UniProtKB/TrEMBL annotation:
SUPFAM superfamilies: Ankyrin repeat. Keywords: ANK repeat, Repeat. It comes from the Eukaryota. It comes from Hypocrea virens (strain Gv29-8 / FGSC 10586). PANTHER family: ANKYRIN REPEAT-CONTAINING (PTHR24123), PROTEIN HOS4 (PTHR24123:SF33). This is Uncharacterized protein. InterPro entries: Ankyrin_rpt, Ankyrin_rpt-contain_sf, Multifunctional_ANK_Repeat. Transmembrane segments: none annotated. PROSITE patterns: ANK_REP_REGION, ANK_REPEAT.
Amino acid sequence: MGVAQLLLAQGANIEAKSIHGVTPLSYASQNGKVDMARLLLDRGANIEAKSHDGSTPLSYASLIGKVDIVRLLLDRGANIETKKKNGATPLSEAAWEERVDVVKLLLARGANIEAKSVVGSTPLSYASQNGKVNMARLLLDRGANIEAKKVNGVTPLFEAAGGGYVDVVKLLLDRGANIGAKSINRSTPLSYALHSGQVDVAQLLRNRGARG
């Protein structure tokens, strides 16, 4: 803190960026340095500064799971629906890594549970694709659309099946996911599992009535 204050007093550029476009506030945010983040914000740091991939300080804090930073940034007016270049929101970032406390906070602050990325992935899609069963359950409990489709017609069940995540597949089926859903190219969750060599998932789907 003392060094940072000295540097700022000497005219250091508070918006200086790394080769990846990361500012001091983003570094503080992803490392959970609340006092540093507060100092930088008090000195006028851009709360919406984006790195080369479109991440803002809130994006970084959400992905890493720094709930105190997320709360600070939201209290200071950070855009809760900010999107990276791939269209991922802070909620999607947190869902991907199963940052439960961050997800609960973002939802409590009004984050869109159905926000879609460039390819149409929702937070539930992210959780399912990464095998995060507890996160998928939380999102479903909060009303996430179990049949949300990506631009290619793929639902969360496809994502979980293709990844071999048996627990997530079971959860989605138990919650009523359409086992016979078809993507734009006529693929099914079963064909996704078979194509990826996910034998256990394929057997589970067949036991639940999937054909093919």
